[in-house]
Amino acid sequence: MSGILSGIRDDFPALAQKINGHPLVYFDNAATAQKPRPVLEAIQRYYEHDNANVHRGIHELSNRATAAYEGARERVAQFINAPSTKDIIFTRGTTEAINLVAATWGVANLQEGDVILLTELEHHSNLVPWQLLAQRTGAVLRFIPVTGDEGTLDLSDLDALFRDVKLLSITHISNALGTINPVAELCAKARAVDAVTLVDAAQSAGHLPLDVQAIGCDFLSFSGHKLCGPTGIGALYARAALQEAMPPYQGGGEMIAKVAFQSSEFHVPPHKFEAGTPNIAGAVGLHAALDYLDDIGRENIHAHDTELASYAKDRLAEFDGIRIFGPAGDRGGLVSFVFENVHALDLATMADQQGVAIRIGHHCTQPLHDKLGVPATARASFYFYNTRAEVDRFIEVLQKVMKLLS
Ligand code: PLP
Asked: Which of 295, 330, 358 is where one domain is finished?
């Protein structure tokens, strides 16, 4: 792996800096990834040469901007093996994508007593929109339980879990524990009871090969910023057949075919769901990020991330009084932990003084943390530009911190 990745860090200007006099060790990749030069340059090039508003333009720059924007849609479709560009709706990110499904498909299709099946691992983005929808429609939320600190799903009674389910909405990889969920298996089970399915791929899209047709989901969402793209852009895969029957999300320009004073006719999907001037530069940056990742190879990224997470987990296990969360076997590229006698905030603050960036808190999974019985965990999350030497440095810093605090 190091052969494939040698020199790759030079593409990331942000990684070359010192923090508090120490080389930056950036282990907060589950929150957002750093950006390589090709992404930064694509955005700059777009603004310097092609900037214009998209669609219906009769001039060169508008045609170029439209080609860039629609080209990015094509690239996203290819990245996740969607059958058509019609299946791809640009959003601000995962959160907006899930809210879009709740506000459109959910409001049009769910009724009192219908069950929305989630897991106990969900990020608040894949929980709160469904709570709001449940309050509005009378639908009820049910949760696939997780088993203790390992955080894998308890699938021992699938028939009971899937009773009356109309929507299954689950994370692919848990941002809190690194659990990789069997999404294809669960989507197949959902299809067998005619339930619609959504996969939250925020933590998986940039970390392993994704194929929406192999997964067999109806919706899938991800964010550009977690896979080396810019913030403020993401995508929702929505099966075209479902989009036809979904009401619009927001009203405004771009999403209409014909407008009169009292009513409007809407554009065809996916444009029907993209009101207003879109994030064109964001789509351009996302396109460049997807190219960048595929040059490295997502199988390689997955192998590297999981190897590093497993190494970090083994090194963390050297400490006394540590509780490490997440699956024993295959896991996404992160490891979460707490120390018995050290507050997570003290730990992260002191690590930052040594140049090591980790995240502490409930990681937007407060109900899961309540279940685990901890208010906060510390999380180190990795990407393909991180190295074993950085894990060693992280452990060395933790050793120093533990000495000082104990
Ligand atoms: N889902 C998961 C699993 C996540 O990890 C995150 C972000 O951390 C989100 C959803 C929300 O993503 P965003 O804030 O980019 O919309």
From this structure: 295
> Per-residue confidence of the chain (406 residues) as pLDDT tens digits?
444 467 899 999 999 999 999 999 999 999 999 999 999 999 999 999 999 999 977 999 999 999 999 999 999 999 999 999 999 999 999 999 999 999 999 999 999 999 999 999 999 999 999 999 999 999 999 999 999 889 999 999 999 999 999 999 999 999 999 999 999 999 999 999 999 999 999 999 999 999 999 999 999 999 999 999 999 999 999 999 999 889 999 999 999 999 999 999 999 999 999 999 999 999 999 999 999 999 999 999 999 999 999 999 999 999 999 999 999 888 999 999 999 988 889 999 999 999 999 999 999 999 999 999 999 999 999 999 999 999 999 999 999 998 888 7
Q: Which of 118, 123, 171 to mutate to test the pocket of ligand 1 (most atoms within 8 A of CB)?
A: 123
Residues 133 and 253 grouped into a single domain: yes
Query: Is residue 23 domain-shared with residue 67, that is, in the same domain?
Result: no
Residues flanking ligand 1, CB < 6 Å: 30, 93-95, 123, 125-126, 171, 175, 200, 202-203, 223
CA of residue 405 to ligand 1 center, whole Å:
33
334 CA to middle of ligand 1, Å? 15
Q: Which atom of ligand 1 is nearest to the CA of 122?
A: 3
69 and 216 together in one domain? yes
Q: Are residues 337 and 214 in the same domain?
A: no
Range of the domain at 309: 3-35+298-405
Q: Whose CA is nearest to atom 4 of ligand 1?
A: 202
Q: In this structure, what CATH number is given to the domain that contains residue 364?
A: 3.90.1150.10
Is 228 catalytic? The answer is no
Report CA(359)–ligand 1 centroid distance (Å): 14
**Is 184 in the same domain as 241?**
yes
**What is the pTM assigned to this prediction?**
0.97
Among 251, 266, 295, where does a domain finish? Answer: 295
CATH code at 182? 3.40.640.10
Closest ligand 1 atom number to CA of residue 94: 16
Minimum-distance ligand 1 atom for the alpha carbon of 125: 10
Q: Residue with the nearest Cα to atom 12 of ligand 1?
A: 94
3-class secondary structure for the chain?
CHHHHCCHHHHCHHHHCEECCEECEECECCCCCCCCHHHHHHHHHHHHHHCCCCCCCCCHHHHHHHHHHHHHHHHHHHHCCCCCHHHEEEECCHHHHHHHHHHHHHHHHCCCCCEEEEECCCCHHHCHHHHHHHHHHCCEEEEECEEHHHCEECCCCHHHHCCCEEEEEEECECCCCCCECCHHHHHHHHHHCCCEEEEECCCCCCCCCCCHHHHCCCEEEEEHHHHCCCCCCEEEEECHHHHHCCCCCCCCCCCEEEECCCCEEECCCCHHHCCCCCCHHHHHHHHHHHHHHHHHCHHHHHHHHHHHHHHHHHHHCCCCCEEEECCCCCCCCEEEEEECCCCHHHHHHHHHHCCEECEEECCCCHHHHHHHCCCCEEEEECCCCCCHHHHHHHHHHHHHHHHHHC
CA of 202 to the centre of ligand 1 (A): 5
Number of domains in the chain: 2
